[in-house]
Design goal:
The protein is built from nine helices and twelve strands. It has 285 residues and is of the alpha/beta class. It has one domain: Alpha/Beta hydrolase fold, catalytic domain (Rossmann fold, 3-Layer(aba) Sandwich). The strands form three sheets. The protein has an eight-stranded mixed sheet, sandwiched between helices. It has a two-stranded parallel ribbon with strand order 7-10. Helix 5 packs across helix 6. The protein is globular.
Amino acid sequence: MRVGQELSFDLGGRRVAGLSWGDSSQPTILALHGWLDNAASFALLADKLQGYRIVALDMAGHGRSDWRSRDAGYPIWSYVEDLHRIQLQLGLERFFLLGHSLGAGVCSLFAASWPEAVIKLGVIENLGPLSDEQESLPDKLRSAIEQQLELPAQLKPRALDAWIRARSQSQFPVPQDAARLLMLRNTESDSEQNYHFRCDPRLKLPSLIRLTEPQVRAALSRILAPVLLITGTEGLKRPLTQARIECVREIKHLEFEGGHHLHMEHKAVEAVASAVEAFYAEMAD
């Protein structure tokens, strides 16, 4: 497996880390991972997409990136802003986007907001961000604020193997070797070789406000780039997906055998990589 090069971006005094594979002479794919994952989630795909420079980010609060300040929080649009800032730092005018789950929601909003910058958009197990009914806003806002006042506790340190085992057996399981890649980046060891979870515990708090479904669909209708949606047979079943697909001007939907992290599963990664590579290679305007 190719070893990714460590990256670091300064966003106004806050560090965003990442990994890159390939070199700047190749077409660039900016890649965003899912909730509580990190840039290493694209390592298996990067090994198979060798015709591209892949820049995978640790989104704020994840992996080796800094946490947001106590008063900032993690609304989805803040990730869109981070992505744009990093695009500018890299000097990218047009590039490919690839996102998984949460990262796919962020990439969808970015492609809607900067349609001229995105050549092709690949999304895995999600199309657009989570939404709420507008009538539920007051109750959910109150509940979210009350939960913000009581910060979730940091997870207790444990041995690295215990973290890997827990990740491989979680609600969205991944193979042991993939879990190891994730947890090596999502933990750090102390002098006694105890491993502490690096992700901000506030990531587990509910959003104060989410977009409504009409807002999400309006955003999806603004995407100009061709879109590839990849889902797994055992992945998340999202009842709104078909209606969202119908909002996108040009979209291809492929389903492969696998779960929510099928791009990290050995039985599916070849199919996912082949589909992404073929999609990006198709003639783009």
